[in-house]
Write a structure and sequence with these properties.
The chain is α+β, with helices and mostly antiparallel strands and about 140 residues long. It has one domain (about 5-140): GAF domain (Beta-Lactamase, 2-Layer Sandwich), CATH 3.30.450.40. About 30% of the residues lie in helices and about 25% in strands. It has 4 helices and 6 strands; from the N terminus they run αββαβαβββα. It has helices at about 5-20, 50-55, 60-70, 125-140, and strands spanning about 25-30, 35-45, 55, 75, 100-105, 110-115. Strands 3-2-1-6-5-4 form a 6-stranded antiparallel beta sheet. A hairpin with a 4-residue loop joins strand 1 (about 25-30) and strand 2. The chain is globular, with a radius of gyration of 14 Å.
Length: about 140
């Protein structure tokens, strides 16, 4: 059964994805017990990747690096990226332009918010700031109870 909270987060993510003209997205909450990002909501992610993105260690993959650095992590084209930041399975999303930001409550990490496009895309500084502000606006509610 889907809870009201799950529905709220799914609607928030869908709205955020639409605002940026994207097709995919994820929202993760930091679990301080094991320093893993736990999946809260997703859209457009292949079923085969679900076991991989359920729990992401801080510092691993695009979301994990955004959490570790506490700053946006962007790739113009995930499919051709050779930086080593994206995990191997990430290419299965078929996403090209991607942006992940930390969800911060002041200086405290609460999780990550990520969006992606199916075309190569460089997010502008304004778009990065806008996504950071969007993430910041939900930070207190994303914290575990």
């Amino acid at each position: 059964m889907i809870s009201t909270t799950d529905t709220i987060w799914s609607e928030f993510l869908a709205q955020t994805i639409a605002e940026f003209g994207c097709t995919t997205g994820t929202l993760h909450r930091l679990d301080p017990a094991d320093r893993h990002l736990k999946l809260v909501a997703h859209q457009g992610i292949p079923e085969a990747l679900m076991p991989i993105i359920q729990s992401i260690p801080v510092g691993k993959g695009i979301a994990g690096v955004a959490a570790e650095r506490q700053e946006p992590v962007e790739m113009c084209n995930l499919q051709t990226d050779t930086s080593g930041v994206a995990r191997t399975g990430a290419k299965q999303t078929h996403v090209q332009g991607t942006l992940a930001v930390p969800v911060l409550d002041g200086g405290r990490l609460c999780g990550t918010l990520g969006i992606g496009k199916l075309v190569p895309y460089d997010f502008t500084a304004e778009e990065k700031d806008q996504l950071m502000n969007t993430a910041r606006s939900i930070a207190p509610r994303l914290l575990p109870p």
